[in-house]
């Protein structure tokens, strides 16, 4: 029997509840589909930081490297540990060390979920560059605290980095409806974004079967609201992708439904799957976190592991659950009730 070993990091707040739910669903589908999923849990979180002085041990990355995939809940509890410490101590080092350069987020409405738009007919796959660009961390501050203080933050765009994320996006477009929207701001940013547009055109010539359109990020933000049905795969830099995928989460009904994958497409290191939302301190003790985003992220993990039929079964069970009105309204159904409904739809 095929067996996949998964590193499970529940993290903080609702991370534990939504990952418990997702794991229950993943185990159920694995049993019914003839493969095994083995989990190894790591308690890395803000509580772990308070106990040990680190979000994860010094050999944490080496430990994770031997797994087939990583399933993560949420990281951060600002009342205990500053966000900059928790983010830079766990999530970002994993994405960077494992070269998870493609951050992939599907944006579509599950049946029965009410979005804020007039249309419910859209199915967008956002691909965000996850390792360089505006979030490369290159820069500095001088004359700190004086009237002459200067802060510089430089975006880093490498040919290797831009080309590989665009190639990945072209491949996704080929697997879907054959349309790719490449997002820049090349009218204002005349170096990095013009460079991105040039590479887009070069790769477009290699993919004549993909219909490519370049958009400025402001126009794309408007399009995602006014004509989301016109979009298929959307590819953007780290910063632009970050912002557009929050917009994507909003139009698909909110953070309870927003799933994501941090992929190392070449599979040289494990990829990581996580709901987009954070630890939700405001509702963490209440038992009402929506586990759908985490379960959907789990389905993306199955897809990545090659268990495509099982991934489709999970997505069908989610759709059957929300079509019954379960899990569609924030706070109405408890985490346990939503999970039970998904399990029952699976069986
Ligand atoms: N990838 C991550 O691990 C990640 C992502 C975002 C935020 N964070 C961290 O999480 C902490 C809290 O951040 P925040 O409050 O800005 O964002 P958040 O996503 O935790 O919560 C924002 C709002 O959405 C609600 N919400 C989020 N997920 C939900 C779910 N599954 N079901 C129902 N409601 C849900 C919350 O109750 C809250 O009102 C911070 O420390 C932040 O840095 C981590």
Automatic annotation (TrEMBL):
It catalyses: (2R,3R)-tartrate + H(+) = (R)-glycerate + CO2; (2R,3R)-tartrate + NAD(+) = 2-hydroxy-3-oxosuccinate + NADH + H(+); (R)-malate + NAD(+) = pyruvate + CO2 + NADH; (2R,3S)-tartrate + NAD(+) = 2-hydroxy-3-oxosuccinate + NADH + H(+). Its cofactor is Mg(2+); Mn(2+); K(+). Its EC number is 1.1.1.83, 1.1.1.93, 4.1.1.73. InterPro entries: ICDH/IPMDH, IsoCit/isopropylmalate_DH_CS, IsoPropMal-DH-like_dom, TTC_DH. Pathway: Carbohydrate acid metabolism; tartrate degradation; 2-hydroxy-3-oxosuccinate from meso-tartrate: step 1/1; Carbohydrate acid metabolism; tartrate degradation; 2-hydroxy-3-oxosuccinate from L-tartrate: step 1/1; Carbohydrate acid metabolism; tartrate degradation; D-glycerate from L-tartrate: step 1/1. Keywords: Manganese, Metal-binding, NAD, Oxidoreductase. The keyword Kinase does not apply. The keyword Signal does not apply. SMART domains: Iso_dh (SM01329). GO terms for molecular function: tartrate dehydrogenase activity. Residues 5-342 form the Isopropylmalate dehydrogenase-like domain. Has multiple catalytic activities. Apart from catalyzing the oxidation of (+)-tartrate to oxaloglycolate, also converts meso-tartrate to D-glycerate and catalyzes the oxidative decarboxylation of D-malate to pyruvate. Belongs to the isocitrate and isopropylmalate dehydrogenases family. PANTHER family: D-MALATE DEHYDROGENASE [DECARBOXYLATING] (PTHR43275:SF1). NCBIfam families: TTC (TIGR02089). This is D-malate dehydrogenase [decarboxylating]. The lineage of its organism: Bacteria, Pseudomonadati, Pseudomonadota, Alphaproteobacteria, Rhodospirillales.
């Amino acid at each position: 029997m095929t067996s996949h070993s998964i590193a499970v990091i529940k993290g903080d707040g609702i991370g534990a509840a939504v990952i418990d739910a997702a794991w229950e669903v993943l185990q159920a589908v694995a049993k019914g589909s003839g493969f095994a999923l083995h989990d190894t849990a790591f308690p890395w979180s803000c509580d772990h930081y308070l106990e040990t002085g680190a979000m994860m041990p010094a050999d944490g990355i080496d430990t994770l490297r031997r797994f087939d995939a990583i399933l993560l809940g949420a990281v951060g509890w600002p009342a205990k540990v500053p966000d900059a410490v928790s983010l830079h101590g766990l999530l970002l080092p994993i994405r960077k060390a494992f070269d998870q350069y493609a951050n992939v987020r599907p944006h579509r409405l599950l049946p029965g979920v009410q979005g804020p738009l007039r249309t419910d007919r859209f199915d967008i796959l956002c691909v965000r560059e996850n390792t360089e660009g505006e979030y490369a961390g290159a820069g500095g501050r001088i004359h700190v605290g004086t009237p002459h203080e200067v802060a510089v933050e430089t975006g880093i765009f490498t040919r290797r980095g831009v080309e590989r994320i665009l190639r990945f996006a072209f491949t996704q477009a080929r697997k879907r409806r054959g349309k790719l929207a490449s997002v820049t701001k090349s009218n204002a940013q005349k170096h990095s974004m013009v460079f991105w547009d040039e590479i887009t055109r070069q790769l477009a010539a290699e993919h004549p079967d993909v219909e490519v359109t370049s958009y400025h990020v402001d126009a794309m933000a408007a399009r995602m609201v006014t004509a989301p049905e016109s979009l298929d795969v959307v590819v953007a830099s780290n910063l632009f992708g970050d912002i557009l995928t929050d917009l994507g989460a909003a139009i698909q009904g909110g953070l309870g439904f927003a799933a994501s994958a941090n992929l190392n497409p070449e599979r040289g290191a494990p990829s990581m799957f996580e709901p987009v939302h954070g630890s939700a301190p405001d509702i963490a003790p209440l038992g009402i976190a929506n586990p759908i985003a985490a379960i959907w992220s789990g389905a993306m993990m199955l897809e990545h592991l090659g268990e495509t039929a099982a991934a489709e079964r999970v997505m069908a069970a989610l759709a059957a659950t929300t079509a019954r009105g379960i899990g569609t309204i924030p706070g109405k159904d408890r985490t346990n009730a939503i999970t039970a409904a998904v399990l029952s739809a699976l069986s």
